[in-house]
Amino acid sequence: MRHNVILVSAVAVASLAAIASFAQVQGGDVQAADVTFLGQPVTGEQIALGQNIYAQNCASCHGANLEGQPDWKRRLENGRMPAPPHDESGHTWHHSDQDLFAITKLGVGGVVPGYESDMLAFGEILSDEEIAAVLAFIKSTWPERQREVQARITAKEGDGT
Ligand code: HEC
Predict the structure, then answer these.
(1) Least C-beta-crowded within 10 Å: which of 50, 96, 132, 156?
(2) Residues 11 and 86 in one domain
């Protein structure tokens, strides 16, 4: 009997904690709480900015819902690859923050010399802060597992960009 009482109160405490963190989430920002970019915590404002930048600069190829181009694993007739999704079904989360930043700033061809790709180099279009914001937005949409795996990949590379 005693056990049950302890168990019940433990559950009560746990659910109170859950309610408390839920309340916090509503007041603050759910997604920002767990997202870092290049080791820096990301704010809700950065994510909102990133969402706008995504809609204006990335959605045309990577999809309004980050779903990528249809049949994105199949090479196009021109020999290039279609734009992959940025959600968990793609492989964006297999890259470290450092690599994502470099790919977005320099284009895939800028990172892999001689590689022909339709991915633009955004270095002339977006500032470094804007690139960080759009990648933070993309990261904020990932489920926990993808976020964790990607955080480990990023940590392994150290913080050199
Ligand atoms: C003109 C179309 C186009 C636009 C616009 C575009 N991309 Fe891409 N992107 C691509 C293509 C195509 C690839 C695949 C490159 C390849 O493998 O050749 C790609 C690949 C990527 C990758 C590597 C993904 C991976 O899993 O390897 C990242 C990161 C990326 N894009 C980010 C962005 C961001 C951020 C924006 C907006 C700021 C953006 N892209 C806008 C076409 C585009």
Answers:
(1) 156
(2) no
* Domain, as residue range, for 115: 35-156
84-139, pLDDT tens digit by residue?
999 999 999 999 999 999 999 999 999 999 999 999 999 999 999 999 999 999 99
pTM: 0.83
Whether the Cβ atoms of residue 133 and residue 71 lie closer than 8 Å to each other: no
**HSE value, Cβ hemisphere, 13 Å, CA-based, for 121:** 12
The atom of ligand 1 lying closest to the CA of 108 is 15
Q: What are the residues whose beta carbons fall under 8 Å from the beta carbon of 44, sequence distance 6 or more?
A: 28, 29, 31, 32
Cβ neighbourhood burial of 27 (10 Å; 0-12, 13-18, 19+)? exposed
